[in-house]
Amino acid sequence: xxxxxxxxxxxxxxxxxxxxxxxxxxxxxxxxxxxxxxxxxxxxxxxxxxxxxxxxxxxxxxxxxxxxxxxxxxxxxxxxxxxxxxxxxxxxxxxxxxxxxxxxxxxxxxxxxxxxxxxxxxxxxxxxxxxxxxxxxxxxxxxxxxxxxxxxxxxxxxxxxxxxxxxxxxxxxxxxxxxxxxxxxxxxxxxxxxxxxxxxxxxxxxxxxxxxxxxxxxxxxxxxxxxxxxxxxxxxxxxxxxxxxxxxxxxxxxxxxxxxxxxxxxxxxxxxxxxxxxxxxxxxxxxxxxxxxxxxxxxxxxxxxxxxxxxxxxxxxxxxxxxxxxxxxxxxxxxxxxxxxxxxxxxxxxxxxxxxxxxxxxxxxxxxxxxxxxxxxxxxxxxxxxxxxxxxxxxxxxxxxxxxxxxxxxxxxxxxxxxxxxxxx
Length: 425
Known about the structure:
By secondary structure, this protein is of the alpha/beta class. The chain folds into two domains: about 5-230, Thiamin diphosphate (ThDP)-binding fold, Pyr/PP domains (Rossmann fold, 3-Layer(aba) Sandwich), CATH 3.40.50.970; about 310-425, 3-Layer(aba) Sandwich (Rossmann fold), CATH 3.40.50. Helices cover about 40% and strands about 15% of the residues. It contains 16 helices and 16 strands. The protein has helices at about 5-15, 30-35, 50-60, 75-85, 100-110, 120-125, 130-135, 165-170, 185-200, 210-215, 285-295, 300-305, 325-340, 360-365, 380-395, 415-425; strands at about 45-50, 65-70, 90-95, 115-120, 140-145, 150, 155-160, 180, 205-210, 220-225, 310, 320, 345-350, 350-355, 370-375, 405. A seven-stranded mixed β-sheet has the order 3-2-4-5-9-8-14, with helices on both faces. Strands 11-13-12-15-16 form a five-stranded mixed β-sheet, sandwiched between helices. It is globular and about 70 Å long.
């Protein structure tokens, strides 16, 4: 797509100045919320598997390139893309391995096309070096990682939430990352569209982290008409080609990105680079580059777009449960059962895992007498909750609440009774 065509498409999809979007993906259950608020009058009703919902959402968000390699339990994303992407005018490329899959997607994105790749467990490990490159070069890219058990081959057909820390810290160096964990098939669609919009608006890779159970279950979904899918396109340069800086300073911190072949010269290197993209050892420019790629995701607007946490009966909770993905569904049942018994229990469900939503967590952690973190690993996100609890307690001048983990790594799900027993203990 040319820059002019992309800008025209973006203008056609953008809401009028001062008007609320029909579907605000910053909200939990965004499509249903739009229907209940009367902003959305019609919806497509269908049944989808989680992986199919992810792939369909990618195409409806404007993705026109998929590069990847089959691996359980993410392969349905690849298969859906193979069947449908060419009908949307896009391209599908099955590479020889996961390293090449993400490399191809990066190249396609720099060529001006919205691109994505999908993998699981060991494949995500292989993508880490190129993911770090994409972070430094500020490539709009969505990486779908359907989590299973590990390490190594682990449990390739069974659910796990074993890649939470790898999503944040898997590649080397200081870099920001956005990682999103859907809990329903509906969210697989909604959060994929949101992931592409974040990637495009802020020129950054975004990781989608469904667990295997969410990705492979089938559920009814409500989807908006195609012309109401909220789509954001990357910023394109508006000045003269000779003035173009692919890594220049802008008010938002996000430089415009020109596709290859449209007359704008750009250089993309994994070395520290200057504003034109050429390698540099100028310590001032290196410091500016590193701090800018973090700061662009920390503005008030960026945090409103990126951070997303569901609060369920947590306003007065004395026992606070933290869970995400498939485990959060069991946690809701456990909270409801505890409430029926007179226990003030509540749930915080981080939809955006990284960066963590400290502002949403702090007041609940400061009030809680006990925090229960349930996840299908040995405590990866519990470490982050413990950190947030200590920060909240320090700010409130109170002792931090005990943070107790419920963890499974035996390929079985955490049941509501497991969480309920800990709530009432």
